[in-house]
C-alpha cells in the first residue's frame, strides 16, 4: 500500500459524518434531540451537564428555547448549538477528536475548513470541519427516494414554526415552485 493510500485510509477512519437538523424548537442528530437553547453563564459552573465551553466562555445548552428570529445566523447561537450537537454525537461514538463532514439542513455561516477546540460537559473536543453539505430540509428527507418517484411530487416539511413546500419534477427540485410559509405546528 502506498503512503498516499495509507494516509487516505487513516483519514477515512477518522472522518465522522454528522448530520444536524437545526430546528427552531429542537436540534436533531441521528442519536440526539435537545431544545434549541443556549445561554451564556457568568462563571464556571459546579456541574458540567450540558455545559459548552468555547473561547473562554461558558454556555448552558438546552432548556427554554431561543426566540424565533428572521434568521438563524444573526448571532452565534446556532453555531454554539452545532458545537454541542457535534460533541453529543462524538461522545456517543466514543470519540473526542475527529475530522467532520457536517451535513446540515439549512445554510450556516462560519463553516468550512475550520478547526475548533471546545469543551462540552467538561470534555475537550477537537473538531476539524473539512466539508459541509447544505441541503434544503425537504430535499434531504427524500433525496435517497428520488428514483422511486414519478414525474412530479410535492414534499411538505411541517416544522415547529414553518412549513416548507417543495415541488419535485423529474427527480429535481423545481426552485420556482418552492415556498416556506410561517405556518408550523406551533403557529397553527
Give the count of helical stretches.
3
Q: State the distance separating the first and last CA atoms.
A: 59 Å
Helix content: 10-25%
The helix/strand order is HEEEEEEHEEEHEEEE
Arithmetic mean pLDDT: 81
Tell me what portion of residues adopts beta-strand conformation: 35-45%
Widest sheet: strand order?
3-2-1-7-9-8-5-6-4
Rg of Cα set:
18 Å
> Quick one: overall form?
flat
Please provide the count of β strands.
13
Largest sheet: 9 strands, mixed
Q: List low-confidence stretches.
A: 107-113
Q: Label the structural class.
A: alpha+beta
Give a verbal description of the structure.
The protein has 188 residues and is of the alpha+beta class. Helix content is 18%, strand content 39%. It contains 3 helices and 13 strands, in the order αββββββαβββαββββ. The chain has helices at residues 3-14, 77-92, 137-142; strands spanning 15-22, 26-28, 33-35, 38-41, 51-54, 57-61, 97-104, 114-120, 123-134, 152-158, 163-169, 172-173, 179-181. It has a 9-stranded mixed β-sheet. Strands 10, 11, 12 and 13 form a 4-stranded antiparallel β-sheet that branches. β5 and β6 (57-61) form a beta hairpin. It starts with a helix and ends in a 7-residue tail after the last strand.
In short:
With about 190 residues, this protein is α+β, with helices and mostly antiparallel strands.
Features:
single chain, 188 residues, alpha+beta, nine-stranded mixed sheet, 13 strands
Spell out the blueprint of helices and strands.
Layout: H1 3-14, E1 15-22, E2 26-28, E3 33-35, E4 38-41, E5 51-54, E6 57-61, H2 77-92, E7 97-104, E8 114-120, E9 123-134, H3 137-142, E10 152-158, E11 163-169, E12 172-173, E13 179-181
Parallel strand pairs: 1-7, 7-9
Antiparallel strand pairs: 1-2, 2-3, 4-6, 5-6, 5-8, 8-9, 10-11, 11-12, 11-13
